[in-house]
Amino acid sequence: MEYDLIVIGAGPGGYEAAFEAADLGMKTALIEKEEPGGTCLNHGCIPTKALLHGAGLFRKMKDAEALGISTGEVLYDLRKMQERKQDAVLRLRKGIEDSAKRKKVDLIRGTAAVCGKGRVLVRTGAEEQTFTAGRILIATGSRPVKPPIDGIDMPGVVTSDELLENEEPIGSLVIIGGGVIGMEFASLYEALGTKVTVIEAMPQLLPNLDRELAQSLKMLMKKRGVTVCTGARVEAIRQRKGGRLLCEYTAEKSETAEADAVLVCVGRRPYTEGLFAEGFRPEMERGCIRVNERYETSLPGIYAIGDVTGGVMLAHAAAAEGRNAIREMNARPDKEDMRWIPSCIYTEPEIASVGMTADEAKAAGIEAESRKVLMGANGRTVITGGERGFIRVVYEKETGKLLGAQMMCERATDLISEFTQALSAGQTVQDLARVIRPHPTFSEAISEAVRIG
Ligand code: NAI
Which of 80, 214, 224, 421 lies at 20 to 30 Å from 35 by C-alpha? Predict the structure, then answer.
């Protein structure tokens, strides 16, 4: 079967690329060994946010009395929450399958391996079939890292993929890694009443984000009863009598944390196992496929995008790279701006960040200023009973040119787009200050932050 393009991996990077290719007239095949949607839809963004939505509502309902609402005893049923989550996953998966049909993209089930220039071998059970194409795009994503910790393979020590399927309440949970996945699961299970301990090796939670965001999250988590140990590296996990697990970690001294289950989320690594035939491998760098600015690998006609190339491992970044790669192949000028990729964390309240932090601007030698607005005086936040939060803008001192924004507040993951748009357009804080934002909204705090007088 001859195609213009074969895309390997039907995650957000792969299916967006395949649909863009079809829209631009390329005869396209999309190969997937599991279900379409990739990590994002099947084991990541969508299922976690579906569960977090339920857990957040549970937390709010317990406090509903304060709003004059009597609820009686508020209980949750994790099995039903899982069903609701699965409904969302299946509905979105069907959307991808329907789009593939409508756009005449051949969705092929099987495990693909690139076996030569323009040739892809697909195994489905015992069957093998070779497909050919002018171009091949690799979008195989990433999978969780299992660090070399003693006891990591014991029952009860799980990755986020496994914990996402859990249907039973958990009494206590140790989370190894206070990064994005760790903090979203801490927020989820804390809301469901689990005794959560987070152990993070670096001096702050969310080491890739702004210090103040991390500090605020740590304080909020502690207030809710989560134990947070930073600067603490887990050395070993042991089994106790009765099946409980004991994590041995070193902070200032050797300590232990005991729990019913241990979640390991210390990062993800590119997925390239079995992807290339012997003697036909593109250049790699620390496990990632190397690409140039046109998403070309070192092998002619073979491209790669998304997590498998390392860099920012985010669904929206992979999707934009996928569409951009196809536009490059078709010499289209209308590419998406990859300079500003927002980061969003769906804790409660949400966290979002785009562009530079004040520390990063300083390290880059830019004379920058920043302005922070607390959400405590924001009308909408007061109405909804929002917790501590803030919006910070970072801008060039002399010109007012926006450099970045960080926020922790309700709807932060939506509000951040206003700053992403402004950064992409090269706007100043004065430009942002001219915009009228409706009252009462969370976005009014943006007006306050950018009115620098
Ligand atoms: P991460 O890189 O965000 O965090 C892993 C953390 O584990 C780091 O802070 C690291 O210092 C710590 N760590 C490593 N070894 C350790 C040890 N032995 N003991 C204690 N701590 C240790 O990785 P994470 O959270 O697993 O997420 C993986 C990827 O998935 C990330 O690239 C993330 O961007 C993406 N993701 C994004 C989401 C979002 O945007 N909302 C949600 C979930 C995942």
Answer: 80
Range of the domain at 44: 2-144+269-329
Domain CATH number, residue 429 = 3.30.390.30
Closest atom, ligand 1, to C-alpha of 313? 32
- Shortest-distance Cα residue to atom 8 of ligand 1: 179
**pTM listed for this prediction:** 0.95
Angle at 250 between CA 244 and CA 255, to 5 degrees: 45
Residue 226 and residue 197 in contact, taking contact as beta carbons nearer than 8 Å? yes
Question: Do residues 251 and 162 lie in contact, with contact meaning Cβ atoms separated by under 8 Å?
Answer: no
CATH number of the domain that residue 39 is part of: 3.50.50.60
Count other C-beta atoms under 10 Å from residue 65's C-beta: 10
E strand or H helix at 301: none
pLDDT digits (tens, 9 = 90+) for 258-308: 999 999 999 999 999 999 998 899 999 999 999 999 999 999 999 999 999
Write down the pLDDT at residue 243.
85
Distance 345 CA to ligand 1 centre (A): 12
Q: Which residues of the chain carry a pLDDT beneath 50?
A: none
Token pair belonging to 82: 């899982």
User: Are residues 276 and 170 located together in one domain of the fold?
Assistant: no
Residue 82 CA, ligand 1 centroid: distance in Å: 24
DSSP 200-256: -SSSSSSTTS-HHHHHHHHHHHHHTT-EEE-S-EEEEEEEPGGG-EEEEEESSSEEE
> Taking CA 410 as the corner, what is the angle to CA 397 and CA 163, rounded to the nearest 5 degrees?
115
DSSP character at residue 65 = G
Cα(402)–Cα(176) distance, integer angstroms: 36
In ligand 1, the atom with minimum distance to the C-alpha of 346 is: 41
